[in-house]
Design a protein that fits this description.
This protein is mainly alpha-helical and 130 residues long. It is 52% helix and 0% strand. The termini are far apart. InterPro entries: Ankyrin_rpt, Ankyrin_rpt-contain_sf. Pfam families: Ank_2 (PF12796). This is Ankyrin repeat domain-containing protein. Keywords: ANK repeat, Signal.
Length: 130
C-alpha cells in the first residue's frame, strides 16, 4: 500500500511540474540531438534522420535544395551524423557541398567523427579526397 501511494504521488508530481527528460551538461549546454523531436527540423532533414531513402530521393527530384540548412546543419551533416550512407552518397551525387560549415562551425566530417559514424567517414574521406 505504501509503495502504491508513493508511486501515485511521484506520478502526480511529474504531471504537475511538467518534468522533462531534457539533459543539460555540467557546462550548461544541451548535448547535440537530445531533443530533435521537439524542434523545427525540415521535413527533408527529418526524412534523412529516419533513413527514408525513397522520400529523400523523391524530394530532391521535386526540387529540394541539397544544401539548405535546417537547425544550422546541411542535409549532408544529418546524413553523416546518423550514418545514413546511402543517403549521404545520394546527396553527394546530387551536388551537396561538403565544405559548408554548420552554424556551430563544424564540418560534415566533424559531425561524422563526433557520432562515430565509421561508414559515413569512409564515404566522406573518398569524396573529400582525404
Amino acid at each position: 500500500m505504501r509503495k502504491t501511494m508513493l508511486t501515485v504521488a511521484a506520478a502526480c508530481m511529474v504531471a504537475v511540474t511538467g518534468l522533462s527528460a531534457k539533459e543539460i551538461s555540467k557546462e550548461g549546454h544541451q548535448p547535440i540531438g537530445t531533443e530533435i523531436a521537439n524542434v523545427d527540423i525540415s521535413s527533408f532533414c527529418m526524412a534523412i534522420v529516419e533513413g527514408d531513402y525513397v522520400t529523400v530521393k523523391r524530394m530532391i527530384e521535386l526540387g529540394e535544395d541539397v544544401n539548405r540548412k535546417s537547425l544550422g546543419m546541411t542535409p549532408a551533416m544529418f546524413a553523416a551524423r546518423y550514418n545514413k550512407v546511402d543517403i549521404l552518397e545520394l546527396l553527394i551525387e546530387k551536388g551537396a557541398d561538403l565544405n559548408i560549415r554548420s552554424n556551430n562551425g563544424f564540418s560534415v566530417k566533424k559531425y561524422a567523427e563526433l557520432s562515430n559514424a565509421v561508414d559515413a567517414l569512409v564515404i566522406l574521406d573518398t569524396a573529400l579526397g582525404s
